[in-house]
Design goal:
GO terms for molecular function: acetylpyruvate hydrolase activity; isomerase activity; metal ion binding. This protein is mainly β. It is built from five helices and 20 strands. Strands 1, 2, 3, 4, 5, 6, 7, 8, 11, 12, 14 and 17 form a twelve-stranded mixed β-sheet that branches.
């Protein structure tokens, strides 16, 4: 099922997508289950929000596709390259990506996001998917010109609005049959199957959970394929994963102080 987080009548709620309606849930399904209130809200009357706001962290994987490592002139990693985004970077579908004044080369990175549903520590790959609540679409926005000078990626990857997520969480999705497609103003820039990942999702969960505990609501971004590039204010970036939906955001420049 597809779980959305939405605003309606100035109240933030959760619901199950059912055609053109949302079946309203009694609470956050990750903690309160799937009991419903008996209400239905038209999608036309609701504003979809980021389907999850991580209470703890967004864990990201760098260079998890060989072609992406090659296009940036980097070696293919022999083990996952992990970094974090703050939860303040998360925005939802339709929200603006803000190009910060500090960067003149802000780029898209379409990715599959994994939403953790149970406390996970020292999880083994063979049962790692048991800890997954669902999957959604992500854009790992990056200030490319800040990565190398900084020597690490916290600032380049962590600006406010640099982690669009949505439009919903799909709890029943076989990533092994999926692909990611990224468009800039309607033109396809990225398209690759998830089978091209160097490290698959079960291995990534095992690797990450061996280092730090993954908590319910944490999000794991699984890397981006080749085709990244810069966008400008006014551009629209769409990341599509068939079966999960289309995450659409338009960019703007930071407002002058």
């Amino acid at each position: 099922m597809k779980i959305a987080r939405f605003s309606h009548n100035d109240t933030i709620r959760y619901g199950v997508l059912d055609g053109t309606e949302l079946v309203v849930l009694a609470g956050d399904p990750m903690f309160a289950g799937f009991d419903t209130t008996g209400e239905r809200v038209s999608l036309a009357d609701a504003a979809l929000l980021a389907p999850v706001i991580p209470r703890s962290k967004v864990v990201c994987v760098g260079r998890n596709y060989r072609d992406h490592a090659a296009e940036l002139g980097n070696d293919v990693p022999t083990q996952p390259m992990l970094f974090f985004k703050p939860n303040t970077a998360v925005i939802g579908p339709g929200d603006a990506i803000v190009r910060p004044a500090q960067s003149s080369d802000t780029q898209w990175e379409g990715e599959l996001a994994v939403v953790i549903g149970r406390i996970a520590k020292n999880v083994k790959a063979e049962n790692a998917l048991d800890y997954v609540f669902g999957y959604t679409v992500a854009n790992d926005v990056t200030a490319r010109d800040l990565q190398k000078p900084d020597g690490q990626w916290a600032r380049a990857k962590g600006f406010d609005t640099f982690c669009p997520l949505g439009p919903a969480i799909e709890t029943d999705f076989d990533y092994r049959e999926g692909e990611v497609i990224t468009r800039l103003n309607g033109e396809v820039k990225q398209q690759a199957p998830f089978t091209n990942m160097i490290f698959d999702i079960p291995f990534l969960i095992e690797y990450a959970s061996a280092a730090f505990t993954l908590l319910p609501g944490d999000v794991l971004l699984t890397g981006t394929p080749a085709g990244v590039g810069p966008f400008q204010a006014g551009d629209t970036i769409e990341v599509e994963i068939p079966g999960l939906g289309i995450l659409r955001n338009t960019a703007r420049d930071a407002l002058a102080s």
